Amino acid sequence: MPGPGAVDTSYPASVIIVGGGIGGWTAATALRDGGYAGEVTIVEAEPLAYDRPPLSKGVLVTGADLASLAFASADEFAAQRIALVAGAPAVRLDPGAVTLGDGRELRADHLVLAAGAAPRRPDFPGAEAAVTLRAYRDVEQIRAAAAPGARLVVLGGGFIGAEAAASLRTIGAEVVLADRSPVPGVRVLGPTLAGCLHALHAANGVDVRVAVIESIEHPSTHPHPRGGDSAAAAHARRRDTASSRGLAGGGGPLVVRLTDGTTVQADLVLAGIGMAGPTPLPGAEHADTVLAPADHWDDARLDGHDAAGRILGTEPPPRGAPWYWSDRYGHHLEVVGRLVGERQGEGEGEGEEIVRWAEPGRPAAVFRLEGDQLVGAASIDDPNTVRAARRLIDQGIPVTATALRDPTISLRDLLRAAR
Amino acid sequence: MAEGIAVAKVGDIGEDEAIVVPRAVAGTVDDIGVFFSDGEYFAIDNTCTHEEASLAEGWIEAGTVECPLHASVFCLRDGTVSNPPAPRGVCPHRVTVDGDRILLTPDPSRLV
């Protein structure tokens, strides 16, 4: 441990952060907030350092421009003395050096790798025609194919797939949502919440399938749709005459064969099937600090904070229960902690799921109670219940199933009563 | 001159609660949230700088409010924001108590 007066000299003179998402941005600002006076540079492959969660939500609906997602304006970057090198990806790390795609080499005493995860790509025949949703340009491509009346297949009913399906329905596209599970998300959200959330898709006119994609074929290789889907065939013929939308290959609608035996004509296929691991980068082992891809935005934010703290020689503060949100069909979901048993597949175990019903069939909140301890909570359109639950969990305040179940009892009052 | 706009009576706003003064009433470019926390009244522009969300609906605690959508934390006293996704703070306004009346004096920079 450096003693008083020695701290400054122990800091690196310059830091490069590879990745301008929430983790990298938070690391940069937390360095400044912690009094770091050296050079701070963010390297971002895309044109800006920006916030990603809106991509599958508001941006897919409204087409909001990239600048509206920026963490800070150019003036605010300058005021914080954070340099942004954007628009060229980092292609290699060496000790103390970052090489960019345009050949430039940047040097710093300390390299932070915060490039996030790469999306997992499907591997069925023709899968190269499917797009993933990770970057702003992906949203541009999806929106270009998603005019009202267009048909899209979304593979995967997890967070990205569910949000994208909802956003695409909101702008009037026809959506087929395919997932191998009848209740996607059940192993994370528990049966009641996952079931209610998934049911929103059908209620909003999404064609929900318990299936995955078997293959994607271009019409040139598959002129006669199989499966006797004559409506789809007619749809395809209409589309053929007006298919200037410009898909990958530009050859008109894709023929998507599902494992339920049906065939769907689609203008675009979006695969939302999870993450493949860290964004590949040769020489990644030369990073001095690595922010591993996080499951959720707030985890990545806290990882950025902790990374800055460690560079400045401080131990990270204890972390509370993880918190995240999702938005779909005008509903705002928040989750804190763990909604299922700790060991997957063992059913309810020693805990129980408690549902607080807003009305029959529509939960306002769902809790997981283990003994007298709340370990997880989720709410739909009632964020302050989760904010209160977050504090009840982190402070270990005992609660009862009766109180959690009763919609007339405010969790805030439970928190106040314990103080 | 003007003594401020009477927006509520003492006791109308509970501990860690807030009311919204519509922009049409305040004569401002944004609605104003009037908050009561830690025994003090505060007023700030009510719309989060990140997305369309009413800060008065957020989690109010110890002189701060957490945005109800994505949990950016704003200081009620000076409007500064302490964590993303909100890119910048909101404008604070003056609140005074005269007898049992809560008076709001909007910041001149935010008047229509």
Task: Give me the secondary-structure topology.
The complex is a heterodimer of chains A (419) and B (112).
Chain A: H1 7-10, E1 14-18, H2 22-33, E2 39-44, H3 58-62, H4 74-79, E3 82-86, E4 90-94, E5 97-100, E6 105-107, E7 110-113, E8 117-119, H5 136-144, E9 151-155, H6 159-170, E10 174-179, H7 186-189, H8 191-203, E11 207-210, E12 213-217, H9 230-241, E13 254-258, E14 263-266, E15 268-271, E16 275-278, E17 289-290, H10 297-311, E18 323-328, E19 331-337, E20 351-359, E21 362-370, E22 373-380, H11 383-394, H12 401-405, H13 411-417
Parallel strand pairs in A: 1-2, 1-7, 2-3, 7-17, 9-10, 9-15, 10-11
Antiparallel strand pairs in A: 4-5, 5-6, 8-16, 12-13, 13-14, 18-19, 19-22, 20-21, 21-22
Helix pairs in contact in A: 2-10, 11-13
Chain B: E1 5-9, E2 17-21, H1 23-26, E3 32-37, E4 40-45, E5 59-61, E6 64-66, E7 73-75, E8 92-98, E9 101-105
Antiparallel strand pairs in B: 1-9, 2-3, 3-4, 4-8, 5-6, 6-7, 8-9
Give an overview of the whole structure.
The complex is a heterodimer of chains A (419) and B (112). Helix content of chain A is 28%, strand content 27%. The longest helix of chain A is centred in the C-terminal third of the chain and has 15 residues, at 297-311. Chain A has 419 residues and is of the alpha/beta class. A 5-stranded parallel sheet of chain A has the order 3-2-1-7-17. Chain A is built from 13 helices and 22 strands. The two termini of chain B are 19 Å apart. In chain B, strands 1-9-8-4-3-2 form a 6-stranded antiparallel sheet. Chain B has one helix at 23-26, and strands at 5-9, 17-21, 32-37, 40-45, 59-61, 64-66, 73-75, 92-98, 101-105. Chain B has 112 residues and is mostly beta strands. Classes of the chains: A alpha/beta (419), B mainly beta (112).
Low-pLDDT segments, ≥5 res of chain A: 1-7, 222-250
Task: Write down the overall mean pLDDT of chain B.
Answer: 95
Main sheet attributes: strand count, strand direction, barrel closure of chain B = 6 strands, antiparallel
Shape field of chain B: globular
| Content-based structural category of chain A | alpha/beta
Query: What is the straight-line distance between the termini of chain A?
Result: 37 Å
How many helices of chain B? The count is 1
Helix content of chain A: 25-40%
Biggest interchain interface, per-side counts: A-B, 22 and 15 residues
Please compute the radius of gyration of chain B using only Cα atoms.
13 Å
State mean pLDDT of chain A (0 to 100 scale). Answer: 90
Unreliable residue stretches of chain B: none
**How much strand of chain B?**
35-45%
Q: What oligomeric state best describes the polypeptide chains here?
A: heterodimer
How much is the radius of gyration of chain A in Å?
A: 24 Å
Helix content of chain B: under 10%
